[in-house]
Amino acid sequence: MEKNHQFNRAIEHSLIVRFPKQRLATFGSTNIKYYVLTEPVYQENDSKEKETVIRTGRVIAEKPKIITPHYAMNLEGFSQDAYQYFNDVIGQNEGNNPGILYSYKNEIGETNIVHGFTNEVADRITNDLNKKQEEMSVVIIGQDSLWDISILKFIYEFTASSISENLKQFQSKGLLTPQPAYGGIPKGVTENIENLFSEVKNGADPNMLKKELDRWNIFNYYEDRFLDLFSK
């Protein structure tokens, strides 16, 4: 309970000073540089010489992936509550309703300590980024002991601000359209399967393709083609 309180407090005290100027890419990965500024834990409130900790790094967002609740049931890493939700959706005959899966990786960079109040340092960094027209950089003020929670807050808000545009672009290309010939999975999935077949023909691991076909429960639609890969 105490840990949850600390997390909630860290989220409440996280301030995103500068958002990236672009949204998450729909058809590729997105590389975002972050600056997380905090007051050092050793600093006293009445200290005359204020210092700020600057942590830099990158959040790498992989290319958004079209999924369905049925597909998500075959992925690892979700909570039990999430799997129960997916199961309920499938029970309502909505197992092939498409959605988007976002995956992120945090690459931690450097940590530096500079003189100055945190908000003043944040303003200086923001102004410098604006002058350099750094479109994919974010500036965040957080808490020193739970600074990475501030990054999670940013990821949540950035994803929420991007998802409608990502969906619109998927829809404009017809990638969310159900394909009855393949059990109703979205068109974007069948295109991805075709790409995987090409990769296997060029030497990629066929287990990667087999695993994806099994996750979508569509191996029977591609069985002959898959076995033909080994006919030679």
Secondary-structure topology with pairs:
Elements lengths: L1 H11 L2 E4 L11 E9 L12 E11 L3 E3 L1 H4 L7 H12 L7 E3 L2 E12 L2 H14 L5 E5 L5 H26 L5 E2 L5 E2 H15 L4 H10 L3 H10 L4
Parallel strand pairs: 2-7
Antiparallel strand pairs: 1-7, 2-3, 3-6, 4-5, 8-9
Q: How would you portray this structure in words?
A:
- It is a single chain.
- The chain is of the alpha+beta class and 232 residues long.
- It has two domains: 2-64 and 102-172, no CATH class; 178-228, no CATH class.
- The chain contains eight helices and nine strands.
- It has helices spanning 2-12, 69-72, 80-91, 118-131, 147-172, 187-201, 206-215, 219-228, and strands spanning 15-18, 30-38, 51-61, 65-67, 99-101, 104-115, 137-141, 178-179, 185-186.
Number of separate helices: 8
Regions with pLDDT < 50 over 5+ consecutive residues? none
> Main β-sheet, in a few words?
5 strands, mixed
The amount of helix comes to 40-55%
Dominant shape: elongated
**SS class:** alpha+beta
Order of helices and strands: HEEEEHHEEHEHEEHHH
Give the termini distance in whole angstroms. 60 Å
The portion of residues forming beta strands comes to 15-25%
Overall tally of domains: 2
Q: What's a quick, concise take on this entry?
A:
44% of the residues lie in helices and 22% in strands.
What characteristics describe this protein?
alpha+beta, 2 domains, 232 residues, single chain, 8 helices, two-stranded antiparallel sheet, 22% strand
